[in-house]
Amino acid sequence: MLLFTRTKGIPKVEPNGIQITSQRHDQRRFLRNDVDSYQEAAEILNFINLKKSKGNYIVDADGNTLLDLCGTELNPLGYNHEAFVKAMHSKDFDSALINSNLTSNEVASADFNALVQKVMKPVSPSEKLGAVTFTRGGQGVEKAILTAMAERGQGNWTALGFQGATHGNHTSFALAQFRGTPKLPSLGWPVHPYPVAANEASILDDVHTSLKLQRNSGKPVAAVVIEPMQSTTGSVASERFLKELRSVTKDNEAALIVDATETGAGATGKSFWGFPAVADPDYLVFGERTQVEGFFSSAESKSSTVSIGGDHLRLLQFATIQENMVKERLLEKVDLTGASLRKQIEQTISKKSGTGLTGVKGLGTSLFIETQDGETAFKLQGHLLKEGVVVKANGSRGVSLKPALIMEQKHVDQFTAALSKF
């Protein structure tokens, strides 16, 4: 009876489409005021009814059914997927949920290692790499950097990254260093522009030069960190660049860390982790869509700060996602749907001269619509929300779409219909 009650009221099927019943947003205003009475609420875009939401759609506090193309970023199967509804009837899920606060090195379930092997081994980028997991917190890149430094012994080690990168949470040293967060101190490590087709060769030369200069100055680089697709711009590093970067890091005895947090779990439709095999990283950092956080590395790369107990629930969730990615052929779906989405966005933009929409970047369904300035970006976000589509503002650069893997052609059509009215 308890299990039945837990999932009672969850919709069996996804809504037919966007349905706006109220533009007044009274409940949204009331709830935001309630939150604002005890903490900052300006960044809250909407309040949703999680139990009524389904698939690619959310039902907000005012009863509107909206197409969500960003909130599902961390929810690859969409809202209330049947696979998770069924999983809630599992004793394994029950136990993991009740004891999900076990987050220490000292305590872990007896079957934890077997679960790690079962869930992570099939998606390892290489047979020589094993998975290291820890509790969520956006610390994957930081821990990979620190582990790479520890492997190399004592020394004044540094790391090299690329401008605009988003590695970790809002206060992480990796984010402050490579994204250039003005309110946080920088470590003074070498940072280079993210590679695009026009400057790949010169960027590689600059990276090679930096690695030599750092070594000669007594501050050698222990690791080079890169996102296959930059999460803030949608720019994509080419296969050729990643291959050459791998060669450069080997020549200079630096580890290559690929941060697949944004591209992992099928987000690009190209591969599970979203980058070509030639990259052959020493560390592959994962998180967000995978639910569980950590990195793949060689057997000798062990982190002393790993926290394993609380990952049991996340691993079970990731296992459910993996199973349904295969069952529903979601990689193929993302590739096909993404191609259609990109084409329709490009066609719409070509007809919208003078609106401030300048282009589209990205891979798969993870796309970035560029705008001429920040004002246009927020104006576009507001317009789409009014039309029943939720997207994420990307600062002064535009808006980003990071939908669930289950996005279909009908959702593409609904989005482009809303975009065409801008």
Question: Strands, helices and their partners?
Answer:
Layout: H1 2-7, H2 26-36, E1 57-59, E2 65-68, H3 82-87, H4 91-98, H5 112-120, E3 129-134, H6 140-151, E4 158-162, H7 173-179, E5 191-192, H8 200-216, E6 221-226, H9 239-251, E7 255-259, E8 283-286, E9 293-298, H10 312-327, H11 330-350, E10 357-363, E11 366-371, H12 374-386, E12 389-390, E13 392-393, E14 398-401, H13 409-419
Parallel strand pairs: 2-12, 4-5, 4-6, 6-7, 7-8
Antiparallel strand pairs: 1-2, 3-9, 8-9, 10-11, 11-14, 13-14
Helix pairs in contact: 5-10, 8-9, 11-13
Keywords:
single chain; Aspartate Aminotransferase, domain 2; globular; seven-stranded mixed sheet; 14 strands; alpha/beta; four-stranded antiparallel sheet; pyridoxal phosphate; 422 residues; PyrdxlP-dep_Trfase; 36% helix
Spatial strand order of the main sheet: 3-9-8-7-6-4-5
List how many beta strands DSSP finds: 14
Largest sheet: 7 strands, mixed
CATH topology of the domain at 112-326: the name is Aspartate Aminotransferase, domain 2
Q: Mean pLDDT, rounded to whole units?
A: 83
Strand content: 5-15%
Order of helices and strands: HHEEHHHEHEHEHEHEEEHHEEHEEEH
Name the CATH architecture of the domain at 112-326. 3-Layer(aba) Sandwich
Q: What is the count of helical runs?
A: 13
Distance between the termini: 49 Å
Structural class: alpha/beta
What does the radius of gyration come to?
22 Å
Per CATH, the class of the domain at 112-326 reads Alpha Beta
CATH homologous superfamily classification of the domain at 112-326: Type I PLP-dependent aspartate aminotransferase-like (Major domain)
Could you list the spans in which at least 5 consecutive residues all have pLDDT below 50?
A: none
| Molecular shape | globular
Proportion of helical residues:
25-40%
